[in-house]
Write the structure tokens for this entry.
Amino acid sequence: MACHGRISTSTAQLGLPELRLGIIPGMGGTQRLPRLVGLSKALELMLMSKSINGGEAYALGLVDAIVSPDELVKTARSWALDIVESRRPWIRSLYRTDKLEPLGMAREILNFARDQAQKQAAKLQHPLICIDVIEEGIVSGPLAGLWKELDSSRMLQSSETSKSLVHIFFAQRATSKVPRITDIGLKPRGIHKVAIIGGGLMGSGIATALILSNFLVILKEVNENFLQSGIGRVKANLQGHVKKGKMTQEECGKAISLLIGVHDYEHFKDVDMVIEAVIENVSLKQQIFADLEKYCSPHCILASNTSTIDLNSIGEKTMSQDRIVGAHFFSPAHVMPLLEIVRTQKTSSQVIVDLLGVARKIHKTPIVVGNCTGFAVNRMFFPYSQAAALLVDHGLDVYQIDHAITKFGMPMGPFRLADLVGFEVAVATCTQYLQSFPERCYRSMLIPIMLEDKRTGESSRKGFYVYDGKRKASPDPDIKKYIEKSRSISGVTQSPKCR
Ligand SMILES: NC(=O)c1ccc[n+]([C@@H]2O[C@H](COP(=O)([O-])OP(=O)(O)OC[C@H]3O[C@@H](n4cnc5c(N)ncnc54)[C@H](O)[C@@H]3O)[C@@H](O)[C@H]2O)c1
């Protein structure tokens, strides 16, 4: 941006992604970008660490010409000569003002950006510092902006936030390297056709993620009604993408054509992988895996999306332990970036490498973990949700807890999340923990009591919150009676402060 001109190819990626690492753009980036593309667009690109392609950059004025890759150097050379010999103007972006909004309007834009940044992550300081630095340049001139940028950059580089975000950056890249699995010369086998058993919340989300990446998907349900609901959920997920402008109606139609709904195992003969996503019930899963062994080819990967159940137990009635693996997605499966790949002592390395390949294709971050109750993620998550239930039995308010957690920076609180996950899954999960670690679990009766009254969470539009047709959650005064009952069963003596 400090050059007198910029030439790009149409596909080059351009952006200032520094905020993702807890720092701000340096070397004048905070000052030059607003002067080249205008304040609003510059804020969007910097605060969201968004990259754009050459074509978009040209439309915004970030680059001055688009040429084909083989013309790039030649054109750049001729532009350089033109500039040096004054056939083209010497443009110094730092002193341009034509794209900058008048001061009053600029202040409004900056304040709006501050509000947005705080809403998105209330605890993060560096987005606000970035906005202050940009403002300094606009109010006091570009040189003052450069000095402030330099001071702020130095300070942020040693911040805890930056150290943590840099750690995450490298950790995410390291997840696909698993010692003695990915370093022994194995290559992922071609996986093209995947069957999913169960088209509920998770099955439909997993199906969406797969067809979005061109996998052919067979979706099996118990009957036509359930099947149509499952397919309906996949279509709704895709329409969500269309509405957000992430795909066209035509691409949506193409994706849905990759999905085939079935009621039996006839289509399972030639699938490369099955992902089971039925309710969290050990004997049902055991039966399904025994059936899969009969109907699928001997090379087919047999995966379960179970949240908590020991995979050895799921595969107990089969002779296929080497191809049984956990493929644990998180809700909503077509949105959440994590895929927990669970290996037992017997899961073959090839199967893990294959699943890592699938994760890459569907743009998930894989983590390969060992097999135990709750694996890695729910093993950490369960104590957190238990603590929330314990606090309610001690007298704290459900909505206050959720509010405190979102204010802390999490996207949703534990009770809103329980609604999203669904109470049946929550109770089944809790049962697994109670069996495995009875001495370490707190047995809250709150969710089972609500479930008895046919509250199942967001899917039935009634959980800790009530939901309108647009899935907007509102607190429900009615839940008081369940809380009181749970408290009386728990026998916890409430501290007066908590009431
Ligand atoms: N809900 C979550 O947030 C979440 C997150 C990660 C993992 N999981 C796990 O995913 C699995 C599914 O959970 P869910 O929330 O999607 O449940 P769900 O109740 O929404 O869906 C389960 C579906 O499986 C179908 N089904 C039951 N038996 C079947 C059979 N024999 N053949 C075909 N379909 C059958 C049911 O009709 C239902 O539609 C569970 O093991 C759960 O622990 C859930």
In short: The chain has a mean pLDDT of 95. The chain is about 50% helix and 10% strand. The two ends are 59 Å apart (CA to CA).
